[in-house]
Amino acid sequence: xxxxxxxxxxxxxTRDPGPWLEESLAALARQDYPELSVLVLxxxxxxxxxxxxxxxxxxxxxxxLPDWGFGAAANEALGMVEGASYYLFCHDDVVPRRxxxxxxxxxxxxxxxxxVTPKFVRxxxxxxxxxxxxxxxxxxxxxxxxxxxEVDHGQHDNVRDVFVAPEGCTLVRADLFxxxxxxxxxxxxxxxxxxxxxxxxxxGARVVVCxxxxxxxxxxxxxxxxxxxxxxxxxxxxxQTLLRRxxxxxxxxxxxxxxxxxxxxxxxxxxxxxxxxxxxxxxxxRARTVWDAWRWNFAQRAELRRARRxxxxxxxxxxxxxxxxxxxxxxxxxxxxxxIAHIGFDATHRQMTALAGTVTAEAPVAPExxxxxxxxxxxxxxxxxxxxxxxxxxxxxxxxxLASRRSRLVAMVMVxxxxxxxxxxxxxxxxxxxxxxxxxxxxSGTWHQFFxxxxxxxxxxxxxxxxxxxxxxxxxxxxxxxxxxxxxxxILGCLPVGAWxxxxxxxxxxxxxxxxxxxxAYLGLPLAYDALAGARVDGxxxxxxxxxxxxxxxxxxxxxxxxPAEGERTTSATRRARLLSLAVLLAVGMAFAPxxxxxVLLCALxxxxxxxxxxxxxxxxxxxxxxxxxxxxxxxxxxxxxxGTAFAGSRVLGVFGLPASTxxxxxxxxxxxxxxxxxxxSPLSWLLLVAALFPLLVGAGPRLAWAGRLWTLAGLAWxxxxxxxRGWTGSFAPSVDVLLAPAAVAMAACVGxxxxxxxxxxxxxxxxxxxxxxxxxxAAVAVGVVPVVAEVGNGRWGVTPSGFEVPLSYLDAAAAHxxxxxxxxxxxxxxxxxxxxxxxxxxxxTSEDGLPTALDWLAxxxxxxxxxxxxxxxxxxxxxxxxxxxLLAPAAVxxxVVLGTVAPAIPGVQAAQAYPPPAGLVDxxxxxxxxxxxxxxxxxxxxxxxAALPARGERGxxxxxxxxxxxxxxxxxxxxxxxxxxxxxxxxxxxxxVSPGTVFSSAAPAGSFQLVxxxxxxxxxxxxxxxxxxxxxxxxxxxxxxxxxxxxxxxVAQFVLWxxxxxFLIDTRFALLHRLRRRRGVERRHPARRRARRxxxxxxxxxxxxxxxxxxx
Amino acid sequence: MRRPGERPGALRPxxxxxxxxxxxxxxxxxxxxxxxxxxPVPGAxxxxxxxxxxxxxxxxxxxxxxxxxxGSGSVAVATLDLVNTTDRPAxxxxxxxxxxxxxxxxxxxxxxxxxxxxxxSDIVSGSWVATSVQLTGGGVLVTQSVAGxxxxxxxxxxxxxxxxxxxxxxxxxxxxxxxxxxxxxxxTTAVVDLSFVTPRGxxxxxxxxxxxxxxGGLTVERIGSYVxxxxxxxxxxxxxxxxxxxxxxxxxxxxxxxxLSLRLGVPAPERVWALPRSINPAGGGTAVSIxxxxxxxxxxxxxxxxxxxxxxxxxxxxxxxSTWVLNSGAQVRIPKGVSYSSVVRASGAGVxxxxxxxxxxxxxxxxxxxxxxxxxxxxxxxxxxxxxxxxDHPAVAGAAPTGVGLCNLSTGRVSVTVxxxxxxxxxxxxxxxxxxxxxxxxxxxxxxxxxxMHRPLLIRADGSVVxxxxxxxxxxxxxxxxxxxxxxxx
Lengths: 1113, 490
What we know:
The structure holds two protein chains of two kinds.
Chain A: E1 8-14, H1 20-29, E2 36-43, H2 50-56, E3 61-65, H3 70-75, H4 77-80, E4 86-90, E5 94-96, H5 100-111, E6 113-122, E7 129-131, E8 134-136, E9 142-144, E10 160-161, E11 169-173, H6 174-180, H7 192-202, E12 206-217, H8 239-254, H9 257-280, H10 284-299, H11 301-313, H12 319-325, H13 331-343, H14 345-356, H15 372-376, H16 381-385, H17 405-422, H18 424-427, H19 443-451, H20 467-478, H21 483-492, H22 494-506, H23 512-524, H24 527-533, H25 537-556, H26 572-592, H27 596-608, H28 617-637, H29 639-646, H30 668-672, H31 686-692, H32 694-698, H33 701-726, H34 736-760, H35 769-784, H36 786-789, H37 809-813, E13 821-826, E14 836-837, E15 843-848, H38 867-877, H39 884-888, E16 893-899, H40 921-926, E17 931-934, E18 940-945, E19 952-955, E20 978-979, E21 989-994, E22 997-1001, E23 1009-1013, E24 1016-1017, E25 1020-1023, E26 1027-1032, E27 1035-1041, H41 1046-1085, H42 1087-1100, H43 1102-1107
Parallel strand pairs in A: 1-2, 1-4, 2-3, 6-12, 13-16
Antiparallel strand pairs in A: 4-11, 5-12, 6-7, 6-11, 8-9, 10-12, 13-15, 14-15, 16-18, 17-18, 19-20, 19-22, 21-27, 22-26, 23-24, 23-27, 25-26
Chain B: H1 13-36, E1 60-69, E2 77-84, E3 90-98, E4 103-110, E5 115-118, E6 128-136, E7 140-148, E8 151-156, E9 164-167, E10 177-184, E11 190-198, E12 201-203, E13 211-213, E14 217-222, E15 234-241, E16 245-254, E17 257-264, E18 272-278, E19 285-292, E20 298-306, E21 309-310, E22 314-318, E23 322-327, E24 340-346, E25 352-358, E26 368-372, E27 374-375, E28 380-385, E29 400-408, E30 414-421, E31 429-437, E32 441-446, E33 457-472, E34 481-483, E35 485-486
Antiparallel strand pairs in B: 1-6, 2-5, 2-7, 3-4, 3-6, 7-8, 9-15, 10-14, 10-16, 11-12, 11-13, 11-15, 16-17, 18-24, 18-27, 19-23, 19-25, 20-21, 20-22, 20-24, 25-26, 28-33, 28-35, 29-32, 29-33, 30-31, 30-33, 33-34
């Protein structure tokens, strides 16, 4: 530096300095800048430091001043110093590096800056940054550009414009300082730097940070080492109070009229909000601080006006330019929300309270990133415990919402308690006979039915039984034959299983916290409870299995981030296991809800659509191939039932669901918010949908891509459900509950993705609309589940206390008068058993000897001879017969039950969802001369067939034989029959005495039954085209099933296949677990290998690579 | 290329906001479209006219006839006319029940294309009788005539039971008797409530509540016993459980006004009713009773058309559960002795309409009669009306059609052929008259064309027409009349 260097006067303001003064002065004395002189201004205080100054810096000037603040004291330099080009305003607790002054002066010249601020580092640790300039938002709130405790790695070592040059060591051009009139003398402490810098900006001067110039700063006042004092030496108000006063003063002074009008209302609103929050949190001091700022400035209004005039006179730069230098949004609100998210509400408010000076300040809490990000992508529980800063556990007393394992456990327990409370009345006692809640067979009966070659559904069929009987048999075996418990497990277990599935589905994409929120959102959707209220087991099964299916489909299709880790061996056995596990799930689902095939196809289509923002047609093809493979495998696993169904021809579509009435279809709005029953009608149900939009709004990377896929899936499901509801799909009418399950999964998963996007994609964002959207999402999730939570009080999720077993109990008792059938008619949604379609909105089914049981639940696709019942019914509906009873007589239909509601309506006790039968049906039946209406309850109508034949009957030889071909029974045909061969429904053999004459059997197919009389097979004659009649003498007879053995053998083969598949899956799973355990054992012994693997995972794991920056954490 | 500060894998904020807004717009848009597409109209029940002829190919059909008395010389001895419109014999079973509980069955067979007359009282005798005719297949029309000391009348039988029946008119003044026959042919016991709308208001006498009509039984109630001295009695038969068929028999025995009226009830209100031809006889009169059985008011318009053209319609707001008796004979805008057609239109759920005709005291018996008007919905392309008995077994001596009133309620011209039915097939009809009806017009076929006709009349048209056939002998046209019944095609 030559002698021509501009003169710099270091103005050190001090008062009762501590031992650090000497070190500070010595640093100034050591500066390599040749034209540096020092002026020490002693602003009051009890101690005269002249001697101490002289000892260290003999050339320094010392002047004693009254008890003024820093600004007022510094302003004295204006009158005392002549010829200086720069002032270096210093606290007495800063130690500039030797080259600091020269670097700052150089930078001032280089950047043509009016004010230059150095890089402040800690007094005791120069490796830790304190300030590299400050920013401020429009309200004057200053924003630190560093994280607390941020280590200096040179990451801020660029010269740049800053909005505020922090006090402590500030180089100001002398002419600028003079033009600005120096520091604001009213500001004794706090925000004086903001005021000076802002006025410099207004005057057109640049404020830059010169990071090469490093200054150690003790921050004696802020750190509490030295008490702050006012101009008269009295204690000043709290720092927060001063800060808020002076920030507001600066804003009021520095903005032009237009911007002031624009900003001031925002400050008012933010202030009111802050006061409201503070009062709500009982932090009166903070509320007072906000209020005090306004009060104080109002009191200063005259002087403030003058100061403002001075500033505006100096204006060289428009406010819009200055706004560009400021931070956007509200720094305070952003910090508040961020703190709430990261350190929890209580900790945030404790921090606020401390800052307001009402309690002893604890160590300031720095916002933390969630440690769950790492955990989300790690299979290692230990790794999960690490947070983003590498710490293993959190410090006590800083709860974060659902971030800890304990809090998640508490939340899960709460959800479980709510589920139990909401299901309490269903857990006690028997389930009512409504919808598909039919009583299950005994344990042995269930197995027998699975292996049996004959089903009594309709009029009887040799079609193979549904695999559901096998599944129920397994479950019954596991539960030691408690079939009542099996039914409850099957029905109520779907809720937690589904929620667990959603949590597992999103697990590779989101944190555990987000997974839990997704699961809660899934449980908060009304779909499952409406399925419960409507007693639709297929809907519940779809609710439970769909998330698992989607996860497995994504895994089988190799979608990111479901791909295996690099280096992780993917053997063909593993791939087969993945596909098989998907197929097994699908097969189980198909057994109870065949429309699950449609669900898988929908999911595959949506997932292969590849979402937003990424490419991957190959992956899409893989997903489709996986779905096709899984469906094919599932069909093989259900082969007997599938083959039997295939023989149904055009009726095969009926297995997916029967076309319901379209008279009052569910609206789009109802479908979209899953309001398909009595629960969920509240407008609040929309809110979960709103929350599900969040990842689309703020998500990035895989979260955005998956949100796109999931919304595509939901859209497909909704549109298909709407088409079915409207009847546009004709006889293809899958249950809407089943179709909506993937949409529900998608919405819940999107909620989870939203939480994850908040954790990951919003980190580091300044306050803005995204944060506002976050608040909306959080509120939407919290309030969106209220309609479901409100149903907890019901204790039954809308399931009626009484089913048809109460008002129709006499049907069971009627079996004492001989075997018979009940013909059930009504909208498919009302039938308490499986049936077939007799036209849109009308289904029919039969039960044997009274009320339906599980025997009648899962009807085969083809009704077989039972189609004659639909034909007869059509005649009655179109007034083409007055003898429907006689037409139904060969089928032994003794009762016809027409249902109009899901459950019987009992005025004042229970109401049930109404699905009226087709108009005129009841009238048509009432017009029949041989149907006697039995007075009953509301919601159903019962007719007794006065012309009915017994299911197994006989009459004397004097009576004529029945017509062999299909024919309308005459009066003579239906007269004179007595019931014989008693026994419970569904048996394959009945034994009893018969009299000489004709024996009639209404079991179909006729050829599969034989009557053995005295060990001799009686000659069978057809009756009415499909039934049997036998001429017998009086003796003991046995009517027994004599079908072929193919069907039972096929069932056995199916069972064996399932066992093999299960063995293979278990074996594969155990092999995988064994590998993992072995690897962990090795890593425990050799931690270096573990670290190496983690490094590899961080760098090369496809999940992490795909997940972007958070994957590398 | 990624912009500075842009997050990896993120779209531009504006793009994301646009996606969300677009998604919301699509969701809302589909919702709006879905809302705009109204759901299909609920499948209406298959409503057959209560007395239409069932298609020939139905599995079985039945007719129910009530209102006749059983004993020879009693007030309303019933005769059933069974007309087989098919080309094969119609076989069935007649079940005649009496109000005393007696019941007897008899097989019946109607040869192809012919008419058979059955007198129920020949099968079983009782004060009142009712008959159910159960037939294998369809294609048969059954009507009923009653005759007694005060006169004779004819009415269709019912093809179906119903839970509600309405009668628009009736009187219990002076010597008039009003008997309500409730026939329950089903196997379900029926419990019936009766209520009456009179000038005094709605009456529901306690003895008429909970009337039990046993399965397959007949119950007859004399309305005048508890609804006394009412000039206008509209009756509502409401069946609590089960279903019945209801017929009303009204007897006028005053000197100079003797007559008998048999009316089958109406199972549901209709919005448009027609009386194709009426006439106000000299010294007598015609009254139209319009009964609103619903609880809501109806705007009722009675459009009268003379041969010279329409007259100013009669209009009234008819309160719920009230009856408007329009004495057309007293209306100056309708001249005496001139034929006219009447169409009654209601604005809401509908009304029930009867016509009552009184001849002068000097006219031949019967001098009084009443019929239910013909619902416009009953108009059909092919209709048939039975002759009151055959030449060998007339309902009363000389009974035969005397005039056919035809009414075209459509907006197009309709060509109508009236034939004597001789049997099935095109050749089985003797054309009596062909007429072309202008829109909203009526025509009368009478005189020579029908003289001595003892065959059922077949009415074929290329559009929907309503036909009401006047029968004689009677004191005036309209005293005994029978509507043509639609013949349903397979």
